[in-house]
Automatic annotation (TrEMBL):
Catalyzes the interconversion of L-alanine and D-alanine. May also act on other amino acids. This is Alanine racemase. Its cofactor is pyridoxal 5'-phosphate. Substrate binds at R134, M314. It comes from Erysipelothrix inopinata.
Amino acid sequence: MIDSVNVIVDEAAIEHNTKLLRQTLKPETKIISVIKANGYGCGLTQVAHTCEKLGIDMLAVLDVDQAVDLRNDGITLPIILLGATLESNFQYLIDFDLTQAVINMEYAHKLDAFAKANNTKIKGHIKVDTGLNRLGLKTYEEVRSCYDLEGLDITGIYSHFVEAQSYDGDATEFSKNQIRRFNEVLEKLHDEGIDTKMTHMQNSPSIIHFGDLGYSAVRCGMVMFGLYHPSQLNESLHDGYKPVLSMEARICMVKEIKKGEFVGYGRTFTATQDMKLATVTAGYCDGVMKSLSLNGGGVMVNGHHCPITGDIAMSQFMIDVTGIDCEVEDKVMIFGHEDQTIYDYIQITGQSINELISLIRYTVPRIYVNPIK
Ligand SMILES: Cc1ncc(COP(=O)(O)O)c(C=O)c1O
């Protein structure tokens, strides 16, 4: 069956990007692949299997339901939950052998009590808040006291950058301060003879910005999937990371309209001449945002850029194909093509890269090309 809309995932590109990432890192540095947001749009379980094949050391997701899906699909890699698992779901941490982020003291005590009540230990990585003010423990004393909780098996400790993608002097100083604060905590723990086990702080932008900072692992998503913050685009291209994702739909109807006719809901487009239109089988319910049409964007058909005419609707939109040779069922490249990269696309929609990949509907069928062994 031909799908009306697809996301194409190039597995060989993930492999290529992972090899490049490894070359950037010290040989002993482990890789935790962050595959939240449906595996950065590539499909959660499929990408997890790809990571296993690529020898990735650990997976990171946000929610316990994603982790349970992975285990039910046969994934045996260690999995860390970067988000807060609700207390009502703590049993899953034990049953599915998951590692939980320890996000504050109250939470640490809840995990500890639950584990003890079940005569077991729950694996945890302590999250140190060095500036994001999202999750994490703030003081050394709090961090230190987690190691005394008998219900917790602390197998790692980590922090998270706020804006490592920025090369602005003030932002870089902020990132360096975060590094200093995290290192101070680690040093104090070492001074007290505590084995911190897995230490990790670096996401993709920080690896591109600072190189390998020497923690035992990196925790990254974007670079594996060939994605960058626009501020790092030139550096990344220079590094040779390859795009992984593209999105395409189909033409389902081609027709001629007369000068003066309106197109789409709200009559936002009026034909200034007789023209040929094509109707496309995707819309905002798939993740093709209205802002693409509102900001004058287009798509690629048979190598030609075709402006969107009128507003994007829930599952369809119209494009101007005047003078272009095309027919029903032809592919419509929404992004991913070299003539309309994901970066060209977000420049028009005003989204961030992560917003874009998160908003592609989960149920849009993913097609995996160039499979790896
Ligand atoms: C806590 C945490 N660690 C790591 C990452 C991975 O970041 P990136 O995709 O930039 O490598 C994320 C993603 O937002 C995150 O929230």
